[in-house]
Design a protein that fits this description.
Blueprint lengths: L6 H18 L3 H7 L5 H9 L16 H15 L1 H10 L2 H9 L2 H13 L4 E4 L15 E5 L2 E12 L6 E7 L9 E7 L5 E5 L10 E12 L3 E2 L5 H37 L1 E2 L2 E2 L4 H29 L5 H26 L1 H4 L4 H9 L9 H11 L3
Parallel strand pairs: 1-4
Antiparallel strand pairs: 2-3, 3-7, 4-5, 5-8, 6-7, 9-10
Length: about 375
């Protein structure tokens, strides 16, 4: 495929870049210091129709598909990994199952509201004893008349502290294993639902929490799709989420590379800029090639996704490649900046702290390799 954005995609890329530069960049440092999320960004993006670019226009999306999502996340990833994280979950994992399998009433109540920035969504899968082994979740939803009564907890939930609703995975029939897992929407004001903030090494402008469900009663109409199909729905949603995740990783890698090139041209040692030393020049030449290759892979996989192709293998590939190249670039940036990069006021240390999350979340690098090897028939 000869790759190039079409006119609409190019216009959206320019608009997303302008928004990220004008609206996000000036408030990032304060958000990082306060360990807080600039809530107004959800509203602003929603009003512009940028918040959920992959969803249909009838629900407030941009109708730009996965490529449109990746364009937005790449630009936001250049400015703030944490802010991008919350917007990415709202426009993907947390709402995708409602978009694909929800009733029209659910789409209007949750999806459309999330697209407009009127509600913020979270996705509740991970638990203390269920991370890579997602089928091992223990949160239970027992049907009682016209309600489900939910008990359990969720860990490491992005948007957990700020969400209006959370789409969770819960066991509705323990005897059926992964086929006894269902997907249910829980409104944040439901009695029995509580949350506590989780402190993190990086991505400080993202609200992460542990969630608790104590006899939390929700109506049966909050079931998304069919009972017992939730695990399948989640796997489908994770394929798209891994592509989106890759865009954020590549955005960070690009900006870390440019910051390091600038520093290598400015920093003089032994009478010349350090970038004139072949060791540093060649290291940056190699990593820039890796970033470019990862970006081409990303947009090819996003294109495949938009064509409706089965791209589980390719999604795992792009997630594996992009997350690990982002970490390598952040490490190179730290080494080349040396002490200057280690200072608290340096953006380089933030890139480093943020990037090391990437091979962990949305499935570890080991899980991606497991998916790829299975798809290869091994």
């Amino acid at each position: 495929m000869d790759f190039a954005f079409d006119e609409v995609q190019t216009l959206f890329q320019n608009a997303a870049r302008d928004f990220a530069t004008r609206e996000v960049a000036p408030i990032v440092e304060e958000a990082e210091k306060k360990d807080d999320v600039p809530m107004e960004l959800f509203t602003k993006l929603g009003e512009l129709g940028y918040l959920c670019p992959g969803y249909p226009e009838e629900y407030g999306g941009g109708d730009l598909g996965k490529i449109g999502e990746c364009i937005l996340y790449e630009e936001l990833g250049k400015i703030s990994s944490g802010i991008c994280s919350g917007i990415m979950v709202n426009g993907g994992l947390a709402t995708k199952m409602v978009a694909d399998h929800g009733t029209e009433e659910q789409k209007q109540k949750y999806l459309a509201a999330a697209c407009r920035g009127e509600k913020i969504a979270a996705f509740g899968l991970t638990e203390a004893n269920a991370g890579s082994d997602a089928a091992a979740i223990e949160t239970k939803a027992v049907k009682d008349g016209d309600s489900y009564v939910i008990n359990g907890s969720k860990f490491f939930i992005t948007n957990g502290q700020i969400c209006s609703f959370v789409t969770i995975a819960a066991v509705t029939d323990k005897s059926k294993g992964s086929k006894g897992i269902s997907t249910i929407v829980v409104d944040a004001d439901t009695p029995g639902f509580t949350r506590t903030k989780m402190e993190k090494l990086g991505n400080h402008a993202s609200a992460t929490s542990e969630m608790y469900f104590d006899d939390c009663r929700v109506p049966v109409e909050n079931l998304v799709g069919e009972e017992g199909q939730g695990f399948k729905y989640m796997l489908q949603s994770l394929t798209g989420a891994r592509i989106s995740h890759s865009a954020r990783s590549i955005g960070l890698a690009q900006v870390a590379l440019q910051a390091t090139i600038d520093y290598a041209n400015e920093r003089v040692q032994f009478g010349k800029p350090i970038g004139k030393n072949q060791d540093i020049a060649f290291r940056l030449a190699r990593i820039s090639t890796e970033i470019e290759a990862a970006r081409w892979l990303l947009y090819r996989v996003a294109w495949l996704y938009d064509q409706g192709e089965d791209c589980r293998k390719e999604a795992a590939m792009t997630k594996l490649k992009s997350s690990e190249v982002a970490v390598r670039m952040a490490e190179e940036a730290m080494r080349i900046h040396a002490g200057a990069g280690y200072l608290a006021e340096s953006v380089i240390q933030r890139y480093y702290r943020d990037a090391i999350l990437y091979p962990i979340t949305e499935g570890t690098s080991e899980i991606q390799q497991l998916i790829i090897s299975r798809e290869l028939g091994l």
